[in-house]
C-alpha cells in the first residue's frame, strides 16, 4: 500500500496509519518495560551490585545517544518512513530474544546496546511524520502516539509479572519477541512505501549537502538546545526511576514479581491518562505552562515518596508520579517541532532523543552509586533534584520561538 504524507487535511486512511504507528510505538516501549521487571531477577542470578544493574541501562542509552544523530541523517535523507519504522521495531525486539540465551554480563551489555541502536530510528521517524501529517493537532496526535508508549509500558509489567509466576524469565523473553515480529511485518506491508512529503514537496528526502547545512542551523537554535538540555535531566529522572523502583519494591518492600508488575502498571496507566489531557491543554494553553507545571509537581511527588518509603502511601504516590512525569513527553516533542525547520524534523527529534539518551544513560548509574553509598531510598531525593534542574532550563526557552520555514 502506498502512502504519501502531505501537510494537507488528513485523509480517512490516515487515522488507520496513526493507530498502526501507535501500536508499533507501544511495542518499542513494551520490550524495555519487560526488561525493567526482569532486572531484579537477572541481578540476583548474576550477583550484580546496584551500580552494575544501573550500568546495564546506562549502556543501552549510551548506544542510543551515539546512534541518534546518524539516525537523524538516515531519517531526513531516506524517504521511505514506513520501512524505517518496521526495521526499527524489529531491531528493538530481537536483541531481547538474544538476552534469553545470555549467561555473561558483558554479553548482556552488548545486547542492550543493540536495543539502543534500534530505538534511535523510531522516534526521529514517527514523531515528525505525525507532526507534519496533523500540523494543527500536534499536541493531541503526539499524545495518542505517546499513549501507545504508555500502553506498552503499563501492560508489559502486568503481563510479564503474571507470566513469571509460571515460567522462568528466560522462557518469558523468548515468547515475548513474537508480538514485535508480527507488528513489524504489518508495518512493512501496509506502511512500507510511506513517504514524508509529496513527490515535489520541500519536505521530501533531501540531499546530504542540504542536510548538513540544515544541521548547522539546528545547533544554533537556542530553543532546541535549552529544550534538549532540560529533557536530558528529565530523562535522567525517568530512567533511574524505572531502573530502581522495581528493585526497591522487590528488595526493600518484599513484593512478588506480580505485585511489582502491578505497581509499574499503575505508574504507566496514570501516564496513559495524562498524555491526551496534557497534549490537548498544550494545544490550547501553550507548551511552556504544561511542561513547567508537570515538572514542578513531579519534584514534589518524588520528595514525598522518599519521605514515605516502605509504606502504602509510597505505593499510592507511584500512580500520582506517573500522571505528571509521563504527561511531558508529547508536549516536549510538539514544542520542539514548532521551533525547528520542517525538513529537519527527523534530526531535531534525533537531537532531542540523543540528549535524552545521555541523561537516561547517566541516571541509572549515578542513582546506583547513590544507592550503594546511602541506601536505595536515597535515590528518590536524587531524582527530585534532577527534575528541578530540568525545569530551570525550560524557564529560559524564548517565549516567542516559532516554527522556522525550511
Question: What does it look like?
Answer:
It is a single chain. Residues 1-9, 196-204 and 402-406 have low confidence and may be disordered. Helix 1 (13-46) runs parallel beside helix 3 (81-99). This protein has a single domain, classed as Growth Hormone, Chain: A. The protein has a two-stranded parallel ribbon with strand order 1-2. It has helices at 13-46, 50-77, 81-99, 105-133, 138-163, 169-176, 178-191, 208-218, 222-251, 257-285, 287-307, 312-326, 328-337, 345-374, 379-395; strands at 4-5, 195-196. Helices cover 79% and strands 1% of the residues.
Give me some keywords for this one:
406 residues, mainly alpha, Growth Hormone, Chain: A, two-stranded parallel ribbon, 15 helices, 79% helix, disordered N terminus
Number of helices, counting only DSSP H or I runs of 4 residues or more? 15
In the sheet with the most strands, the strands line up as: 1-2
Number of domains: 1
The largest sheet is:
2 strands, parallel
List the helices and strands and how they pair.
Blueprint lengths: L3 E2 L7 H34 L3 H28 L3 H19 L5 H29 L4 H26 L5 H8 L1 H14 L3 E2 L11 H11 L3 H30 L5 H29 L1 H21 L4 H15 L1 H10 L7 H30 L4 H17 L11
Parallel strand pairs: 1-2
Helix pairs in contact: 1-3, 1-4, 1-5, 1-7, 1-9, 2-4, 2-14, 3-4, 3-6, 3-7, 4-5, 4-14, 5-10, 5-13, 9-10, 9-14, 9-15, 10-11, 10-12, 10-13, 11-12, 11-13, 11-15
